[in-house]
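Reading a protein record of the kind used here takes only a little practice. The record below shows the convention in full:
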Amino acid sequence: MQKHSVKPVELNQEYTLVVNSHSHEGEGIGRINNFAIFVPGAIPGEEVKVKITEVKKSFARGVLKEIIVASKNRNQENCTLIDTCGGCSLQHMNYDAQLEMKKEIVESTLKKIGGIEIEVAPTIGMDEPVAYRNKGQFHVHKKDGQVTLGFYNKNSHDVMGTNNCSLFSEKINEIVVFLEEILTDEQIKVYNQKDKTGYLRNIVFRQSKETNEIMLIFVTNNKANKLNKIISLIEEKFPEVTSFFQNINPEPGPIILGKEFKLLKGKGLISDKLGSLDFAISPESFFQVNTEQAEKLYTKALEYAGLTGTETVVDAYCGIGTISLFMAKHAKKVYGIESVTRATEDAKFNAIINEVTNAEFIAAKIEKWLPKWVEEGNSADVIVVDPPRKGCDQETLQAMVEAKPGKIIYVSCNPSTLARDLKFIVAGGYEVKKVQPVDMFPLTSHVESIILMTSSTSEAKK
């Protein structure tokens, strides 16, 4: 007869424990008889009382009921929605402690998954980690005749109001309140996720930190335009809103944007600035949501590249050309490769408005383009790769290693896939030289990192 080990904790019971570490999501971890208990909102060094909500084979989860001994790193001034909103999971910690935690997350993940032991630089933070988001995606919800724009509650699809969210500018918060009023007054039919009926699903904001221009994107369930009155009311009160788009998304499920955009009124683009460069931003453009930190990130990439004006750079996953154009000012030639055709068109336009003539943007998959380009007798001094959260596939990693650049600069938004990919690149003859975390998303557990790798073989281009 199979024996079942007795767990030291029981469901729905309360226990006192000391938090001695944290997870990669920023949860506190304490132990009872060496059995790990994950507690959101708890900080290493604290003694807390928790109620167990889930018991698994090797760990349990609990909710924080009482802080018996508080950490010196605890922040007492929190958003009123801290217990319900799923957004700012680290706001209970002071900012210096958040930055240190993110450094530790990158360091430990590289060691555990990648087998890479290296001193990670202190996380580059913001001077004022508030109102940093230049983009926001709000769910539209209607209850008892009242329309609410907001985010999902923790662990559910119930929408709650944002209550003047500190991640956005004062102007965006004003527009959110106004939209809730006029959408309620005009009795716009709101999409119901459960029965798949209704019209208005989401509202997406994009805001230029340079010009303060705002783009509004109304996500609807069908192509009908029922928004003219709403647009007129917004225009009258908020002249900063210069672009109004409709996005059509008839598909069920949680994906916010559909494939079709229609310009309803105003300009098709807003413009923003990174360093000395201007960028035109369309509804579909990938543009880092934190403009201030993006500039620091790309400046660090440029520093790592160490360009003298004679180098050839390949920028994989180039998007609308942000990193490419940063590099082009200091390189002989830059090739920006991007699989999304619309993004490469935006990149070409951004090169024109910045009078950059030594950057070429190509719509292609990097894993297909790079080997062919090398076979034609070309070589890269530097390859920059900035993939999505899932990281690079093995074909892309193999193509980069076989191209034998002198340097590979990897920009990552996911420490786990970063560590996995670096392990492959190291096995291919490269050495990790520098690791720099950048706090792109203050108050959350997300962390951006930039890594410099150099060739450890004589075959690579120096």
